[in-house]
Amino acid sequence: MMPLRIPPLLVAVWLMAPWLTAADRATVIVVTGAPGTAAYQALFTQWASHWKTAATHGDADYYEIPSSPKQAAVLKTRLAAEKQSRQTPLWLVLIGHGTFDGKSAKFNLHGPDLTAAGLKTWLNNYSRPVAVINCASSSAPFINALSGTNRVILTATRSGAERNFCRLGGYLARAISSPNYDLDKDGQTSLLEAWLTASRQTAEFYKNENRLTPEHSLLDDNGDGKGTSPDWFRGTRITQKSDDPKLLPDGLRSHQFHLVPSAAERKLSIDQRARRDVLDLQLATLRARKSKINEDEYYKELETILRELAAIYHPSTSKP
Question: Is residue 301 part of a domain?
Fold first, then answer.
């Protein structure tokens, strides 16, 4: 009898099976708005396909909101159907064009447009981690409307006045699952790393074309509603402090969002990953307070955090 040959891909799926639980899966929702022209439609379709591929590689639930005059209503229904208090993140990606009339920012849909204020209402009851990635022109006001605890808000522009077509979305869609942009070499590319890469590539495009840059991306993940420019970072480390001493700078939370987790990350349970993220932020907060507290107190708190982190990564060696 011939030996049974199991395809390597199937073997990989079986080996990862304990990780593939319903509660463990992230959700990716991609909305491709009204393109305006066939050329933009082709671009937006391509960008959406990259997100679908990334979601597949990351074992995330993937939904595309189809083009129709009721596109906004379908998105509202999809968001309402999602589990709003789970520990795995929701990724909402808006690909298309946007407008700003000085008061209201909108993402252009087939049918009624999506307003920043409307999306805020639809997400009001969400306590789960949420990343809203608005790749459209005039998208910056979405930061002011949506910023909050446990949220990452990324926009292609730094103001509503940047109205030209934005290219950031294409670079970001390709970077989000590529190991080439794993800046800290931990085996996975975070949303922060993908954004920093895409922002740099966007700037390089306009430089090579000898054109003024009409888009300047922002990222907000500390809840202050202001956003931070990519040129504030060196590698994945931010070089400036938050204006509010009670807040950590932007970048730390988005660096914890990985659509395609590493092999080591997949070995952790959902609770372990969530607790690890909390401890990492506590560690960053403690380091920010170092100059303001007693040295003994600092090292006591540091040891407590590091011991708990060690117990997550090496449970067998952390027991007394």
Answer: no
